[in-house]
Amino acid sequence: MLAYITKRLGLAVLVALTVSILAFMLLYLSGDPALAIAGEGARQVDIDMVRKTYGFDQPIIVQFGNWLLKVVQGDLGQSIYFKTEVGTLIFTKLQTTMLLAVYSLAFALIISVPLGVLAAIYKNSWIDRLCLGVAVVGQAMPNFFFALILIMLFSITWRMLPVSGSGTWQHFVMPSIALGYYAAPAFMRLIRAGMIEVLSADYIRTARAKGLPTSSVVFKHALRNAIVPVVALAAVQLGFLLGGSVVIETIFALDGLGYLAYQSIIQKDFPVTQVIVLLLSVIYILLTLASDVANAWLDPRIRVA
Amino acid sequence: MNYSSTSLKAPLAKFSLRAGLLACAIAATAVFTLPAHAGKKNDTLGFAYDQTPENIDPYYNNVRIGVIIAANVWDTLIYRDPVTGEYKGQLAKSWKQIDDRTLEFDLREGIKFHNGEEFDADSVVFTLNFVSDPANKARQQTVTGWIEKAEKISKYKVRIISKQPFPAAIDYLATAIAIHPAKYYKEVGPTGMNLKPIGSGPYKVVEHIPGKSLTLERNKDYFKDSPKKQPVIGKVRIRFIPDRQTQMAEVMSGGEDFIMHVPKDQADKLKSFPQLQVQSGNTMRIVFLQMNSRDGTPAPQLKDIRVRHAIAHAIDREAILKNIVGGGEIINSICTPSQVGCTSQGVKVYKYDPALAKKLLAEAGYPNGFEVDLMAYRERPQTEAMINYLSAVGIKPRLGFMQYAAMRDLARGNKTALTHQTWGSNLVNDLSASTPVYFGGGADDVSRNPEVIKLLNEGDSTVDMKKRNEVYQKALSIIADQAYAVPLWTLPVYYVASKEVNFKPYHDELVRFWEMSWK
């Protein structure tokens, strides 16, 4: 077990290091960063000043080394655009994004659990097909498109919900639905498969034979067992939802990490972009690692692989 | 073994019913407790904009919304009438030129900043000396770099001394150079000014949430003699919404009252909404096709004047303006028509004449045209239209569409052939802010004509207006004769607003909240 964990941990560190190199290189993707920061109206002196201030005159490898050393020590640098500590900036935005991710996950579970259960109970009937249809649409439709449809219906036609912003809980309704719907199909398929397997197990027959009410059999006995793998998937999906919020937060002008990522890209605020990319990747890597370790602990066969 | 499904239906139906009722209840609560809207009813103008200023302090940002906020929250010494172009006193009563480098201002008395601090010579002297000191790293050195120092003569009299004779000073002082309260600015600096901005303008900032929103309130004590009108609308809430579709959804749903920079095709569609008005305005941003004729140009064909003339004759500017740009005006010189010193008098104009273009190309030795790179970074439909016209006479452009910084890198490194350029002059209404950038011998100059460089330098430092106009005219006609670039048009901007709002667009893209009112 220890060897397995060490191996996974080593892999995770290597992935994180690779991501950090990629994150750092993002800076050089669209031309001279000094020129980009200085902007359209800048003169040569302005650009030279920027180049010196941010150390762009040093070799790339030195810049990367300096940056990584600081990040490891917890110094995430200064935002070029907002002139504040990147750490503080990200911390203030993290709450909104966390809320959005949790709401989206909740929404995904709220629709996928009943649909998955229904699909399993009415296996191969039109209800099953309908649930499958809902899942396929969710998986296939780009979430920015779904977001625009929601805005059109709920804000423009019916005027029920505010279009954008993050002031009240109503502001979170459409973004959570748009983001959560995309995550739902994976859960649904897993629950359906789990339920079909569990419902045919002997102990369910026993429970029925004891004369337990139907709801008790389905929700207490069957679902509880079918939902175990969903918990592991939820951990990974949470990481995905945190990262997937860039588009949704931008559309709904939700003042979170994804919106900050978008702004930082537009404003060429590379210290912020780098840290967000790194942070989201590390969260994802950690959640995956946790899920791997948990699975290995539950199922010894995995440890050998 | 299969589990019988029929026996499960009844309780599940009950379960879904309960969930459905809960969902309805949540939706109903949402309807009745919608957050407060902007609009006439609340005397709050909702304005959505896509960019966030990095700092509200006018000297520490370089985005358009920063300029709009600056004009509404702060005052300048001089005011430029957007219609007549006439300069009037704002914080200054009057001014005079003492010598080539010195301007003297008599200041108004009795003006107070939003925090109660009095306006006097100290405000001017401290602000100007602070922002012109390179150590304080003002964002745009172009705006402040010309100032050597400001001096206090008496409580209401100051002098501003420029490093060199600088005729454009009046225009900078009328647009970009806002005056801060000295005591407050000394205490909090640009960072504090961003968190709690204090000016003397028609609107005061009541709340600033960086990156999210800015709320302004009418300054009831705004000084009566200001050439800006007394503000009417009670509150203005500026929200930063990055996505254009979301902005449009906001005005359609009544969540916001005013948006700008709406693309033409979208603006046309919004015209069908009965509650909205769509207006287009001109801007100071000019568009031109730059041709690299420097030594070592990657397209040596462009060194031949006949080829440059052919390109100028090949593009039907009128047709593109009418069908694609949809507003703005044709320009014949590389400068914004409203700029002091900009003229098209006596400047050669190239009519659309594809036959002549082909003939010129044949004379130059390219009867079958040639392949050439064409770089662009915005207004792609316009670029594509130009490519079509060039292809029609045999020139085969290869499009390179990229970020501005990347394109500028290439241009400065002498690696571009044709470049689809646009330039906004940072809102400065003086030719020194446009033509010299591309023809004055600097990094962005790809023609490097010594005579043009000399003339432009002379114009930039001559205080005598008549002489200045003369040398600029000469430079502009050489640029046109040589066809170093094809002057194209000015870009229009589309505004979409609630029909309840009275407003008027101006060529400087400045939204003047103080002139706006409810219908």
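qc> The CA atoms of residues 282 and 492 of chain B lie 5 Å apart.
qc> done
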